[in-house]
TrEMBL record:
NCBIfam families: cas_TM1811_Csm1. GO terms for molecular function: ATP binding; endonuclease activity; exonuclease activity; transferase activity. Keywords: Antiviral defense, ATP-binding, Endonuclease, Exonuclease, Hydrolase, Nuclease, Nucleotide-binding, Transferase. Transmembrane segments: none annotated. Residues 465-602 form the GGDEF domain. Belongs to the CRISPR-associated Cas10/Csm1 family. It comes from the Bacteria. This is CRISPR system single-strand-specific deoxyribonuclease Cas10/Csm1 (subtype III-A). One of its GO terms (biological process) is defense response to virus. The keyword ATP-binding applies. It comes from Cyanobacterium aponinum (strain PCC 10605).
Amino acid sequence: MENKEVTSHSIALSVLQEGIKKLAQWLELDFPSLPLMQHQAIIRAKEVMSWQNESEFKPLNLLFDSIHLQGYKRQENVHYLPPSIIKNESPILELPALEIPDISNFKKQVKEIIGNLNEEDLNNLSLLNLCLEKIGSYVSYGDNDIAYSDFVKSIVMIAVSLKNNPSADSIGLIGGDLSGIQKFIYTISADGALKSLRARSFFLELVTTEITQQLLTELNLPLTNVIYAGGGNLYILTNNNHEENKRITNIIKARFNDWFSKSYQGKMFLALDYVTLPVDSLSNDKLSEYWQKIPKKLGKQKQQKFSNQIRDFLTPQPSYESCQVCHRDDQLKLKPLNPHDAYSSSACWVCRTMFDLGSRLFKIKAIVRAKRAKNKGFDRTERVNKIVLPGYEYYLYENINKALSLVNAETIFLINNWDLSNYKNEKIEPILLGNYGKKTELENESGFMSAGEMVKIAENSGKIGRVAYLRMDVDNLGKIFAQGLGEKLNLPRLASLSRQMTYFFKVYLNTLATEKNYNLLFIYAGGDDLFISGVWNEVIDFAFEIYQSFRKYTGYNPSVTLSAGISFAGAKYPLYQSANESGEAEEKAKGNGRDSLGLFGEVFKWEEWLGKKDIHVNQLERLDNLREYLGGDVYLSLFGVKPIVDSLQKINNSYSRNFIQNLLATAKIQEQKIKEAQKRKTGLIYKEEIDDLKYFLHLPKIAYTLTRLPNEVINHPQFEPIKTSLKSPYNSRYYRAIAIWLELLNRSS
């Protein structure tokens, strides 16, 4: 092929074709004779990534097994992921196992998919890219812990970046960071706040997408060169043309920041920059050294936000009535947030747009991106939500076929859709969103369930009427990416780690919530964190399910954990305050050595909240210091908060209110005595005194409290293990949490 015909697109397509062909050869399938390109950039990329034609496809080792952070125990086990195909809809969580899995059934599934690809499909970059991810994410080729899809895509990225200069010593990395997300999302308080919050989160995801799309267009790169884009962050591999890369990043950065300044009062800011990476660093741990330069450069930009527009910010602006939702006061005309409610809050155009958008997100299946000057072919007889971004408009469709019929679309994004039959046009791309939300059950209403409905559901089941807000993220994520893989770090593993985090938060959590039909709303679920609202007891249950699923997903690696915080509020409580309170609870959880949950004003390790039944304390992972003090030769029928609460609930909820109050009183006495001792703190004696108060002061009070329970509780055959467990020093710190939980479960007023 002559050089004039070589494009970034053709190089990417050729590598993907070869990747699919390699699978076909393994399956002994006839494969169409395609003119695979032998461009020097492809040859060099294969050399960098050590593509070996004699390598074999094998079961994939769990990449998380390779992660180790200083100060944590090393992962001792070797896990394997079951070879599988990603389902078209609602993909399930593929959990690792210790046994080497059989690969034969997987081969049959892959054979069927590749066998159905025609010549047109094999020349469709978008379809091949998705196909490779669908069938190659749970099998290895070469290194056992690198997914085949990530291996091939890394070669694609490097080859495209080297297209103009195959012998170059370096290539470029563009990084972006959209700051001010929390300020834009959380600082609202009004009726319909939940749906507005969800819309704002969705809007910011589209902003990140649009920034990425414009960078790819200006840099003449295919979508395959995006390492990661979501949640306000993006990383793109490109060439080493320093001047051109700086020019393009500066133009796009200025374009969006001017828009943020004029339309959103500068609440958001885009930091965008570029660094060069030695080509050889992409295959080894030197990559970390160069990768970390991007966050540092972006951090400097964030410290000098809107420095080019400082005069605009200092110019006096007229002030008007404040929006009752976001409190901005630069809008001349406010209108009702809900046009169908005469008593609705007065709101600015942004908040009205977000409220309306929030009502329509429930059924959205496709998003159409089109230049603002080229959308005349769109059918205006159907009411379609429109989001206006710099230079482009995004149209939201419930009907996929309707979206696919629009000839003037530049790109059509299909939401959480892995069905290859929908990607026959090359302008169609997938977009992953953590978008679970329970549909409203109110008559004449549409969209997601409101906070008021969530409160009613709790009250109708005999519980206190509250909404809960959960914030959760991965502990030490920056260190995991920069240091966790040690000498094994390279581009494919970095891309794989990013992809697997994205799968968990944006794909699998949707499935987990759907399976239990939880009364929840995902306000945000991104690459490594989430913010969820819902019926309070269901939020707690889901938080535990997320944690347990994540630990299984990561092979119980001691270095890879989650911390979370949960707050409670009434339906009318300011949502920004709820977000702050759950955020504070999460910070306290991280301050507890991470791997913890802040709930009911208490912070414990997840192991302490979840607890265990019929366990010897030597089996408890996180309580080494406590075992040393109390002794390890102890057997507990019930350990931890949840098992005791669950057991009491199963017996009878007729235990008196005095029992709950006495549990709280016992906790208060402990806290008061500990505070008094802390004022007198003196060395080792002080520590022993604190421990004695913490673990033994409760015994007389709790023994008395248990004797005062109703006879039907005391005489219940299942009460004996509860009684002995409550007396155990190992459970003495949990009285307050147990009492509050029981109180909320049994008080509907």
